[in-house]
Amino acid sequence: MSDLMMGIYLMIITVADATFKDMYVLHDYRWRHSHACSIAGVEGTLSSITSTVFIALITVDRFLAVQYPYGEVRFNVRTMVAAVVITWVCGAVAASLPLMPFAQDWVIFSNSGMCLGLPFNEKRLPGWQYSALMFVAVNLLLFIFIGIGQYRIFKIIREKRKRTKKHVNRSNRLSQNQRLQEIAVAKQLSLIVMTNFFCWFPIITMGIVTLSGHDLGQLIYSLSATLILPINSALNPVLYTLPALKKKWDDFRALKREVHKARKSKASVDLTHLEKTLGKKSDTRRMVLLKSKRSTRALRQALLKTKRGTFAESDLKLMYEKVCQHLLVYSRN
């Protein structure tokens, strides 16, 4: 949802760019103080805040899953819903603060044509504390928290790998598979955290540099708002989707192998039963037995050809019925 918010922000900026084109200099002031620019600023700020908070919540959930693999301590559904609702409500309130009556003098969304309150202006304009708090302080603290959580997760995984024995009995095999799944999810989360870190670390660094009194220029502001921040939102759906698709493909291949193994085992049992039955020799049944043995050899060759794709399964079925008929005659005689 937070990535969708960033998409809406980019769509508003794109429509404004296509509308004004080469005449933007004539409409700069009107655009920066318009309702559309304010809405775009709220969308972009809300996306930035909630995205990082959700990653922090996921980090806590993964830490609990790895630390307590048997579910002794875990988020229940009510707790997760409450955390999500609180995050969205607090994020919406924080993103809408520049639009409140007491903040009419703040220069946040109208600071730039990108309508995003990034703290990249060396001038201490009214409301600069808000930009520094939302885009530098909050994100910096959250990423320190996420970094500590990731370090703890990897430390726990490494310790459990050292304690894990090579041979596990059948009773704890399910728990072992569950732990491996939790480790795989933790690795996926680490990749998502890394992309978010490489997105926000430049923003935080440039914000600190600007607050120190250095001017980075409007080009850096535009690149940060239209390139660095959206890359994170564009990559997150891919990072969430690809592992799920890979897991489904692996499950499909495993199921296919099991079906093939089951068919092969059944065919082998049928042929073994035929050979044992035909192995009982008798003088009165020698002719029928000879025909049955020949049919069995032909059936085995047909089965091999069917596996190679050079023999039709319908013909194999007819040949199998023929062998069964010979066995029926053999048993009656």
TrEMBL record:
GO CC entries: plasma membrane
Membership in a protein family: Belongs to the G-protein coupled receptor 1 family.
Location (main, coarse): membrane
Keywords, in A-Z order: G-protein coupled receptor, Leucine-rich repeat, Membrane, Receptor, Repeat, Transducer, Transmembrane, Transmembrane helix
Subcellular location: Membrane
Bilayer-spanning residue ranges: 46-65, 77-97, 128-154, 189-213, 219-239
Classification via PANTHER family: G-PROTEIN COUPLED RECEPTORS FAMILY 1 PROFILE DOMAIN-CONTAINING PROTEIN (PTHR24372:SF77), GLYCOPROTEIN HORMONE RECEPTOR (PTHR24372)
GO MF annotation: an example: G protein-coupled peptide receptor activity
GO BP annotation list: adenylate cyclase-activating G protein-coupled receptor signaling pathway; hormone-mediated signaling pathway
Positions of the G-protein coupled receptors family 1 profile domain: 1-240
Protein name stated in the entry: Relaxin receptor 1-like protein
InterPro entries: GPCR_Rhodpsn, GPCR_Rhodpsn_7TM
